[in-house]
Write a structure and sequence with these properties.
This protein has 6 helices and 3 strands; from the N terminus they run ααβααββαα. The chain is mostly helical.
Length: 164
């Protein structure tokens, strides 16, 4: 049997049950993430897509509408509507791209997400306490697992959009 990507012991059928359990946990985490987003979005009068779009903008610092469309899979029209809603609600602002006057960047308005961050802060504090119980080596494996899983998920969504 070939070794796995990390070069450790080869995969065997005994691991199949563990892989299945991990798959179920990842699915449950995805569902729980949606539930958290819906709950927080409702608290602020947003829809889930708008809250997640806001988070993607915050993670990047600033984005173009095209980058946001690529990250979300939304059409250009839907992204424009999302940005318009977030701008009307006071969360984001459009600014000219200093490197390219034809482009517009979208960024979080200063202080605009303080109240949203306060809602997430207790959960983030508890998560950091949990994650801090793992060793650096364990966290490296977890980071690798999550990074490669995320990249694969992005690829799979692209395949679905392309009808594959």
């Amino acid at each position: 049997m070939p070794a796995n990507k990390r070069g450790s012991a080869p995969f065997n059928h005994a691991n199949l049950k563990l892989v299945g359990r991990i798959g179920n946990i990842v699915r449950r985490m995805g569902a729980q993430s949606v539930i958290v987003s819906q709950t927080v979005a409702a608290r602020f009068g947003l829809n889930t897509t708008d809250l997640e779009g806001l988070d993607l903008i915050q993670l990047q610092g600033q984005v173009t509408a095209g980058q946001l469309a690529a990250a979300t899979g939304l059409t250009s029209g839907a992204v424009t509507a999302l940005i318009d809603r977030l701008e009307r609600a006071g969360y984001v602002e459009r600014i000219d791209d200093p490197a390219d006057r034809r482009r517009v960047l979208v960024r979080i308005r200063e202080g605009a997400i303080v109240e949203i961050a306060k809602v997430y802060a207790p959960m983030q504090k508890r998560m950091i306490a949990l994650w801090s119980q793992f060793s650096a080596d364990e966290l490296t494996v977890i980071e690798d697992f999550l990074t490669r899983s995320l990249e694969l998920s992005v690829d799979c969504v692209a395949d679905l959009r392309d009808g594959r």
